[in-house]
Specification:
Helices cover 5% and strands 35% of the residues. It is mostly beta strands and 492 residues long. It has four helices and 24 strands. Strands 1, 14, 15, 17, 18, 20, 21, 22 and 23 form a nine-stranded antiparallel sheet that branches. The protein binds calcium ion (4 copies). One calcium ion is lined by residues 137, 139, 141, 143, 145, 148.
Length: 492
């Protein structure tokens, strides 16, 4: 399937001839493809969860007027949650609050028709962590914790699996959740030492190495207890199972604590491990500051992650030349579609967040050009080494677009030692005939990054000979097309 040189790719040097006069034969086959439907921008939908909260207001009403609780439901798309307000009659509005979930299947960010299988408010079309909550970001680094967390069972949805209580401590699952999520809970760590000042803990061991990290957690100290603290500590070990080192450990980042009661707070701090570290013990504790027989702190969404550094790769466009991109309305080649992309071997794991190609000029017909741009949709796909599509995105360009970087958004971790492929094309370009060019730069800072191209030709009936979404259409060559790839490093 793979060839080191593109068999039919058309490369047109601007310095030689006007781009539209350079002939490129019809090559492959196929249908331009359906392209992915753009996800609906339903940003406000996330807040629709407030519909349920509306029911709570009803409880306070303790009477027929409690029906106003239902108004909360209007926050959801479709507002169907609002009907829950009828619970207000008879002061049962609290039950009515569950009406908020009535619209839950449609209340998600993204393409609502794709559903929300894990019910985290992000539609399946955009869900980056199936089965986990995409919206948890305790360290507020704008990256879903589920993509970067080294800890297991951080969300504590239904039990405390992977978390272990130490001497004179207990750990138990609690139904209260840091974000009020009715489908999740937290871990209650209780100090039963009955000794003033004693710290008692639960923790999880993570096999990892020397480096810079961030530790964080949500915590809640219930009121009505004696004075005490919530603490987070990490210890570094020479062995892989949190043993090893003089005295059992190599070092520690020291405890960070908070004392606020009756509200969910956050503890967060960066730290660095020491040479020889092979594992980190992430420890959450309850410290009692009097002689109370028990002191409890609840923890939720604990986070342990590597420090993340930005990744920016740019093979700039310096005006050197361009390669045909898009459809073709020339009589000899009509219809035709040429897509472009890159193939990149990854040496350090990172989260890919934006990918771009440099599109030199407006999208116009080749023959005859109208001299004005046309609004177009460009599709980008991220594929693994075997061509399987991992994620796709579309970007719309206005008719006023006259050239520049075109970006697509991604949220996929690219792993060290793997090869990935970004493929892009003009949606419906086979039928429309609109085209532009993508720039290249032969002063190449990334010689290992290959160009990918796919050329869809037509048969005698004008039907596509191959689908541009079909991986068999794509071939690699060494043309140094301009690209930009941005993201952030993650732990391996
Ligand atoms: Ca989801
Ligand atoms: Ca999810
Ligand atoms: Ca985060
Ligand atoms: Ca939780």
């Amino acid at each position: 399937m793979w060839y080191s040189i593109a068999r039919f790719a058309c490369v047109c040097a601007l310095v030689a001839l006007p781009l539209w006069s350079v002939g490129c034969g019809p090559e492959s086959q196929g249908d331009p493809g359906d392209g992915g439907g753009g996800g609906g921008i339903a940003g406000a939908s996330g807040s629709s969860g407030a519909g349920g909260a509306g029911g709570m207001a009803g409880t306070a009403g303790a009477g027929g007027t409690a029906g106003i609780g239902g108004a909360g439901g209007t926050a959801g798309i479709g507002g169907s949650g609002g009907t829950a307000g009828i619970g207000g009659a008879g002061g049962m509005a609290g039950i009515g609050g569950t009406g908020g979930s009535g619209g839950g299947e449609l209340r998600c960010i993204g393409d609502t028709t794709s559903g929300d299988t894990d019910n985290d408010g992000v539609c399946d079309s955009d869900d980056v962590c199936p089965g986990e909550d995409d919206l948890i970001d305790v360290d507020t680094n704008q990256l879903a914790d589920c993509l970067e967390n080294l800890l297991l069972n951080s969300e504590l949805d239904s039990d405390v699996t992977h978390w272990e209580a130490r001497t004179q401590a207990t750990i138990a699952w609690d139904s209260s959740d840091a974000d009020g999520n009715p489908n999740s809970g937290s871990a209650a760590v209780t100090n039963i030492a009955s000794r003033e000042g004693f710290v008692r803990s639960a923790g999880q061991c993570v096999e990892t190495g020397e480096g810079d990290y961030v530790a964080a957690t949500r915590y809640y100290i219930p009121e009505g207890q004696g004075p005490g603290r919530a603490l987070v500590t990490t210890t570094f070990h020479a062995g892989t199972e949190c043993v090893g080192g003089a005295g059992g450990f190599l070092g520690s980042d020291g405890s960070r604590y908070q004392t606020a009661t009756g509200t969910w707070g956050t503890i967060l701090h960066p730290f660095s491990t020491v040479s020889g570290t092979q594992s980190i013990n992430f420890v959450v504790s309850a410290q009692v500051l009097d002689t109370s027989p028990a002191f409890t702190v609840q923890y939720d969404n604990p986070l342990l992650r590597c420090q993340s550094d930005p990744v920016t790769m740019v093979r700039d466009y310096t005006g050197g030349g361009g390669s045909w991109y898009g459809g073709d309305d020339r009589e000899l080649f009509t219809p035709r579609l040429v897509g472009d992309g890159i193939q990149i071997p990854v040496t350090e794991s990172f989260l890919a967040q934006r990918f771009a190609l440099y599109v030199i000029r407006q999208f116009d017909y080749s023959e005859p050009p109208e001299g004005t741009g046309h609004a177009v949709t460009l599709v980008a796909q991220l594929r693994d080494a075997s061509g399987t599509i991992l994620e796709s995105d579309t970007t719309n360009l206005a008719a006023t677009f006259s050239g520049g970087w075109v970006y697509w958004d991604f949220t996929t971790v690219l792993r060290a030692g793997q090869t990935y492929n970004f493929t892009t094309y003009l949606q419906d370009g086979f039928a429309s005939g609109l085209k532009s060019s993508v720039g290249y730069n032969n002063a190449d800072p990334y010689p290992s990054v290959m160009r990918l191209s796919c050329t869809v030709g037509h048969d005698a009936m004008g039907q596509p000979l191959v689908d541009v979404d079909d991986w068999s259409c794509w071939d690699a060559d060494s043309l140094a097309i301009s690209f930009a790839l941005e993201g952030a490093t993650v732990c391996d």
